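pinned: reference chain
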Amino acid sequence: MSEQVFHGTTILALRRNNRVVVAGDGQVTLGSIVTKHRARKVRRIYHDKIIVGFAGATADALTLSEKLETRLEQYNGNLTRACVELAREWRTDKYLRRLEAMMIAADEKNTYLLSGNGDVIEPDDGVISIGSGSTAAQSAAVALAENTRMEPVEIIKKAMKIAADLCVYTNHEITVEEIGE
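pinned: its structure tokens
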């Protein structure tokens, strides 16, 4: 019998007009069954100055979030340094290497995607996403950002709606967090 895995999510981050917005859907799926509709996959850490969103195994993602917060404390809130050190540890540590999750972290100035391969990726155009509906969400956000004057929160909500309409592992229960003016 094959082991069933909790599957799918969509996390989207957009930096525009001196603001950063991160959103995530609420669906948790086990095999072909939706087991939760309102999971919170986007949250604030480090004195509410950093927004993180995660995709993958929940316990693994929470472990990574805690590790990132520890690194932020160690480096006085320097997100770049904390992300690089976390990615390095994640890639080299025997226990952490097995974690199955990805994370987006953002503060007032920086947005990064972190992975267990040691990646710390900063988006070129201010938009980045992870998870099963990420291609639809990111494509929609880029198109809206390039072709409208919509506010960042409006773009994020519309892009996440498009992803939820297309991806069976993404729902319309969206959590949105914002930092900036």
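why pinned: DSSP finds four helices and twelve strands in the chain. The longest helix spans residues 58-74.
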